[in-house]
Specification:
- With 276 residues, this protein is an alpha/beta fold.
- The protein has nine helices and nine strands.
- 42% of the residues are buried.
């Protein structure tokens, strides 16, 4: 059987380093630095000074020339389902092209720590609660961040890759189309059959404990076969965690982007934020 995995990327126009003023919000792109780690973020700031913040992370793209567009897409998608209109949204343009999968956790962490510790001064605001949300690879990043730093809550939609051993082995055997993710890992670690532990160490299945904050996982049950193959194992490992804060799973009809189209998922997303 051949599996086909095609990541979905929805493109929106994105302007860099331009502030857009409206009666209700300001949107700007900003290059931020924390602990000598630089990353671009797109900020949608309501016209108030006391703000809760939602930090969002986009899914996989092939080239870093696409990450600002992907960050803008993530901002628009999460904003479209967010009931609270007075939250500031910070969308992180985390790099992917010239690094091994998972190494962009450094930029993801820098963005979170910047919001926590420097956004007040640099934006002239008072930050209240801080939430994380991510789609696909962005869901992978927020799940890992939840093991590093406490926030007010984390939402991960269709997080992955869950199992790089399984995914990259399928690519090696020609059962699915090749990806830059697995090719770069192969160049460093060799085949999965020779060095499966290095592939597993970067898989989300390796990050299922030690959650410092409550986390909501949302998964469309009609997602790709690669995702759904490992989803039951991932879910079981998380729910078996003995050193985690509360973990909640919402399995819904739909594909990889079901959070943004499914009514019950949107409700769970907003209830999670509003109840914390």
């Amino acid at each position: 059987m051949r599996f086909l995995y095609i990541p979905l990327v929805i493109l929106f126009a994105c302007k860099t380093n331009i502030q857009v003023e409206s009666p209700s919000s300001t949107i700007l792109t900003k290059n931020i630095t924390y602990n000598n780690i630089k990353v671009d973020v797109i900020i949608d700031k309501p016209a108030v000074t006391n703000l809760d913040v939602l930090i969002v992370f986009h899914g996989t793209v092939q080239n870093d020339s696409e990450i600002l567009t992907a960050a803008n897409t993530a901002l628009n998608n999460f904003k479209s389902i967010l009931d609270k209109k007075n939250m500031m949204i910070v969308s992180v343009a985390h790099p992917q092209e010239n690094i091994l999968f998972g190494d962009n956790i450094l930029q993801a962490e820098a963005a979170l720590l910047w919001v926590k510790n420097r956004a007040n001064q640099e934006l002239g605001i008072t930050v209240g609660k801080v939430f994380l949300a991510g789609h696909s690879q962005g869901g992978y990043l927020v799940t890992r961040l939840n093991r590093l730093h406490q926030t007010n809550g984390v939402i991960a939609n269709a997080p992955g890759p869950l199992n790089l051993v399984y995914r990259c082995e399928l690519e090696e055997n020609g059962q699915v189309q090749s990806s830059s993710t697995c090719l770069k890992l192969k160049n460093v670690y060799g085949l999965t059959t020779a060095n499966s532990s290095s592939y597993f160490e970067r898989s989300l299945l390796n990050f299922t404990d030690g959650f410092k904050s409550d986390i909501l996982f949302i998964q469309g049950q009609d997602d790709s076969p690669i995702q759904m193959y490992s989803w039951p194992s991932f879910k079981q490992k998380v729910l078996s965690c003995t050193n985690c804060q509360k973990s909640q799973f919402v399995d819904i009809p739909g594909g990889h982007t079901a959070l943004f189209t499914n009514t019950s998922a949107k409700t769970e997303f907003n209830n999670f934020i509003n109840n914390r």
